[in-house]
Design the sequence.
């Protein structure tokens, strides 16, 4: 927070007067707010000094010059071009400057009125980083307070910069040992302390913790551990007593090494200055498989929990766990919005969160008492949350340890709500949540093999084509009634972060490059601006010289583990697309020069000869060696890094080795992988060459599918007979023969390929034939088809169980 600060709002008479003057501003767009407006929500309305603007993390501003009546006149005021690199971040505004982070801890200060660069600072991550995890993605945000900008580099340095000059005022290292960690969440400044966490709970049992540093000196004030361990800090004595009994078999192997851990708090923190409580959003455990992490069971606190600690000492006060005995990558690391809600006729100070598990929670923020929770998306792991105990009522069979086969899990590991910010408006009383509808398949991997990441103890297929999946929404949720007020289906599968304003508006970017303002009451689109690039980071709004501005940063990224790239394949998410800071005002006069986009084409590779087995082996290595983390599921780029299907380096073994093994592009953000063997390296390169060969046909099939869906007039008899079909799989085109019979609208037949024959059955409706059959590859799966026929040619898609949905075409023999 800034120096004029909400922290002292209840103690400063001058600030009370200022707030009294400002309060009507927050209400001018409507006669009466739907819910009580806390003073902290409207403090310092001219600025946006922290991730959620205020310590309550509501992503709400009371500014209302830009409102439902005037937003149609919103124009571009200025823009600033950024270099390629991570830009899925939220900017800040304070003391007349817009501060932002891009790439690997590259910080800039821009003039808030003109966009002119005032200074820049490179955090030095690329030079120092010793592992791919330390390089990973860039920062999602930074913090500001009392004339200083604060950042945490992805390799663990906490840094204070002079906001006027960009010069370092202090720098400290956050990691106490060599366990694999990274930091890419935004730090916060609460009560004179810089609050930082870290990530890494998907790859090792490293013990999670949160640290508070003195904002003036950088000295460590307290450190709170979120899973039990041998070291017990003064701040952790109460917490340790609570945690240990929930790990009944302990967290160590017989040889003393750590068996279970995790609980990293890498993204979400909130602060109530009146209660003097800081709220920590804690992540998942490692290994995922609880039988390996904690053979004796137990809730395994504080995994997947909200934990309240004393702001001065870090001492434990209360907790609420959203997934006891977590084993599905269930985390509570999403925004925790603080507000006062009128519930049963009484004002309740609450904390609201939509964690990854698909429920929306309202909790008393003073005591941790459970108030209510309901589903905001499709959920299969639990039926409901018990109103008396606040614990989930799990669905039978969802605990996979020791059981054969795989289970359909909703939400999947990306969650129903990921890190992209939600927003709460006291004006409407609604919370605006970017929601994902995406299922996954998960099963026991305790015996080894099949894990997407070594040691997780599961077989996990995170991006699965399931009915109702691969969708995203903006959902407006009433936290008092726990009901949906309105929703809008968004393009693609990765929604942008949200900002709400006193002008009765909700702003959000989209994967199709539209920046949209909607009516906060109804969801109706009132204004949009088309950019060349997707938008993932949340926008902000501020006021300078009496004029309101709205700023957003364009650029794809932030999906994690390469997921969500397939669902966005129909949209331009190219890493080469321009990344910009865009700022709007009602009388904006700026324009953006035209961008000449060159459609990517695969490199010429005339000597390549397909080999299905080798390509499949390369696909497994591409997944298990962490390539998918940046370069996308099945090598379909999602915008976080170059799409390797179109990269010329895959055709040259020496160049590929220099970049992947030796770090030839480390300064561009590509970490070296020296431990990959030469044979594995060549197998991965072979897979990428196969993917490049398949790319043009996949792209054409997407276009054909869109055209066919728009106007399908095929009759049932048009499908009858034999078809030579080609399925564009991730490892290259696969040929098969389809032989179909139609009786009325019922369709039956068989599909024969090199792997065997599948009997299929289904029906014809509205010009499309949909049919399916059972196969084994090697697990039992369902193979389904959705096709149409036009001008004697078949087009559509093949869903190959958990392995994805692929475009296909067909012709008569």
Sequence:
């Amino acid at each position: 927070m800034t120096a004029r600060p909400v922290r002292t709002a209840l103690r400063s008479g001058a600030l009370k007067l200022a707030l009294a003057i400002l309060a009507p501003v927050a209400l001018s767009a409507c006669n009466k707010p739907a819910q009580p407006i806390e003073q902290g929500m409207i403090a310092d309305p001219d600025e946006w000094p922290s991730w959620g603007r205020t310590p309550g993390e509501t992503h709400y501003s009371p500014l209302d010059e830009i409102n439902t009546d005037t937003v149609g006149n919103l124009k571009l005021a200025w823009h600033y071009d950024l270099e390629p690199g991570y830009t899925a971040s939220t900017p800040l505004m304070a003391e007349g400057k817009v501060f932002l982070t891009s790439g690997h801890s590259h910080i800039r200060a821009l003039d808030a009125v003109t966009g002119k660069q005032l200074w820049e600072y490179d955090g030095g991550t690329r030079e120092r980083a010793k592992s791919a995890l330390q390089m990973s993605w860039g920062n999602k945000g930074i913090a500001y307070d009392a004339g200083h900008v604060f950042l945490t580099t992805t390799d663990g340095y906490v840094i204070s910069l002079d906001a006027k000059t960009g010069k370092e005022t202090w720098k400290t290292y956050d990691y106490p040992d060599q366990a694999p960690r990274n930091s890419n969440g935004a730090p916060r400044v609460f009560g004179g302390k810089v609050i930082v966490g870290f990530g890494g709970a998907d790859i090792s049992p490293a013990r999670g913790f949160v640290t508070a540093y003195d904002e003036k000196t950088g000295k460590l004030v307290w450190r709170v551990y979120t899973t039990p361990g041998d070291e017990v800090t003064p701040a952790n004595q109460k917490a340790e007593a609570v945690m240990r009994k929930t790990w009944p078999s302990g967290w160590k192997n017989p040889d003393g090494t750590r068996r279970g851990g995790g609980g990293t708090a890498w993204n979400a923190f909130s602060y109530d200055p009146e209660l003097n409580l800081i709220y920590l959003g804690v992540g998942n455990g490692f290994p995922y498989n609880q039988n390996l992490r904690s053979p004796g069971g137990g809730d395994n606190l504080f995994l997947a929990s909200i934990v309240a600690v004393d702001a001065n000492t870090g001492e434990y006060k209360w907790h609420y766990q959203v997934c006891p005995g977590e084993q599905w990558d269930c985390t509570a690391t999403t925004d925790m919005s603080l507000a006062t809600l009128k519930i049963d006729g009484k004002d309740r100070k609450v904390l609201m969160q939509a964690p990854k598990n698909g429920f929306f929670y309202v909790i008393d923020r003073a005591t941790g008492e459970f108030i209510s929770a309901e589903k905001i998306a499709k959920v299969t792991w639990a039926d409901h949350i018990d109103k008396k105990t606040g614990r989930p009522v799990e669905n039978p069979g969802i605990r996979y340890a020791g059981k054969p086969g795989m289970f359909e899990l909703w939400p999947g590991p990306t969650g129903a709500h990921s890190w992209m910010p939600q927003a709460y408006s006291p004006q409407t009383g609604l919370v605006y949540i970017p929601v994902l509808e995406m299922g996954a398949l998960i099963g026991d991997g305790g015996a080894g093999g099949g894990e997407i990441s070594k040691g997780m103890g599961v077989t996990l297929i995170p991006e699965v084509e399931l009915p109702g999946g691969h969708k995203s929404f903006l959902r407006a949720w009433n936290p008092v009634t726990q009901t949906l007020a309105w929703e809008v289906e968004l393009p693609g599968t990765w929604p942008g972060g949200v900002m709400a304003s006193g002008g009765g508006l909700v702003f959000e970017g989209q994967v199709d490059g539209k920046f949209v303002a909607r009516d906060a009451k109804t969801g109706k689109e009132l204004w949009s601006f088309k950019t060349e690039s997707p938008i993932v980071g949340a926008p902000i709004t501020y006021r300078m010289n009496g004029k309101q501005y709205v700023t957003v940063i364009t650029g794809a990224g932030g999906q994690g583990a390469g997921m969500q790239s397939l669902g966005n394949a129909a949209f331009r998410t190219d890493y080469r697309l321009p990344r910009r800071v865009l700022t709007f005002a009602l009388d904006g006069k700026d324009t953006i020069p035209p961008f000449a986009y060159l459609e990517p084409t695969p490199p010429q590779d005339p000597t390549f000869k397909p080999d299905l087995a080798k390509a499949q082996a390369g696909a497994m290595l591409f997944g298990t060696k962490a390539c998918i983390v940046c370069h996308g599921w099945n090598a379909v780029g999602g915008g976080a890094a170059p799409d390797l299907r179109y990269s010329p380096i895959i055709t040259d073994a020496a160049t590929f080795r220099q970049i992947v093994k030796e770090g030839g592009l480390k300064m561009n953000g590509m970490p070296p992988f020296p431990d990959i063997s030469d044979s594995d390296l060549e197998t991965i390169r072979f897979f990428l060459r196969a993917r490049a060969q398949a790319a043009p046909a996949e792209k054409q099939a997407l276009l054909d599918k869109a055209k066919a869906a728009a106007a399908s007039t095929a009759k049932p008899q048009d499908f009858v007979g034999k078809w030579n079909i080609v399925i564009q799989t991730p490892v290259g085109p696969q040929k098969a023969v389809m032989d179909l019979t139609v009786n009325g609208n019922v369709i039956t037949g068989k599909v024969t390929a090199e792997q065997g024959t599948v009997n299929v059955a289904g029906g014809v409706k509205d010009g499309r034939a949909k049919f399916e059959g059972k196969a084994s590859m090697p697990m039992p799966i369902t193979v389904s088809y959705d096709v149409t026929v036009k001008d004697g040619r078949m087009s559509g898609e093949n869903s190959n169980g958990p392995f994805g949905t692929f475009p296909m075409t067909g012709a008569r023999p």
